[in-house]
Amino acid sequence: MSFRLSTRSRTRLKGVHPALVAVVEAALARSCIDFMVTEGLRTPERQAALVKAGASRTQRSRHLTGHAVDVAALIDGQVRWDWPLYGRIAEAFKVAAADLKTPIVWGGDWTSLRDGPHFELDRKVFP
Ligand SMILES: [Zn+2]
Predict the structure, then answer these.
(1) Ligand 1 centroid vs 110 CA: distance in angstroms?
(2) How many angstroms is it from 95 CA to the middle of ligand 1?
(3) If we measure between CA atoms, which residue out of 79, 115, 121, 76 comes closest to residue 96?
(4) Where would I find the Peptidase M15C domain in this sequence (predicted)?
């Protein structure tokens, strides 16, 4: 079973760091759960709106620099937010990242404000 990025997902990867795009592609190719990209590069205006709404706590989001993506799990083409799906997608991301030697951080591993749909390049290697 191998899924492919939709045209819409590809459009949303515009401006995202090529190393992260490669991880997204490799993760999807090996994932047992289909997913789409919901957001990549973000404008400062949108980030400010998200902080105001309480959806984000930082004005220094990795999305502003193209170092982060958000995904949504798809079951039979329908978006699902069930938490366990994101753990399984994260497994695919972590294996893909290790294969490509591109360190990433999963928002689901954060201890505060866990963010299951969020993946970003590790700041230590990609400042
Ligand atoms: Zn995010």
Answers:
(1) 12
(2) 20
(3) 121
(4) 57-121
- Which stretches of 40-126 are assigned E, i.e. beta strand? 68-75, 78-80, 104-106, 118-121
pLDDT tens digits along 43-82? 999 999 999 999 888 888 999 999 999 999 999 999 999 9
By the CB criterion, residues less than 5 angstroms from ion ligand 1 are 68, 70, 118
| pLDDT score of 98 | 98
Residue 42 Cα to ligand 1 midpoint, Å, equals 9
Give how far the C-alpha of residue 42 lies from the chain's centroid of Cα atoms, to the nearest Å: 13
CB 20 within 8 Å of CB 105? no
The pLDDT-based confidence of 112 (bands split at 50, 70, 90) is: confident
Domains defined along the chain, listed by start = 7-121 (3.30.1380.10)
Sign of CA dihedral 26, 28, 32, 33: positive
Q: Report pTM.
A: 0.95
Q: At what angle do helices 18-30 and 83-100 cross, to 10 degrees?
A: 120
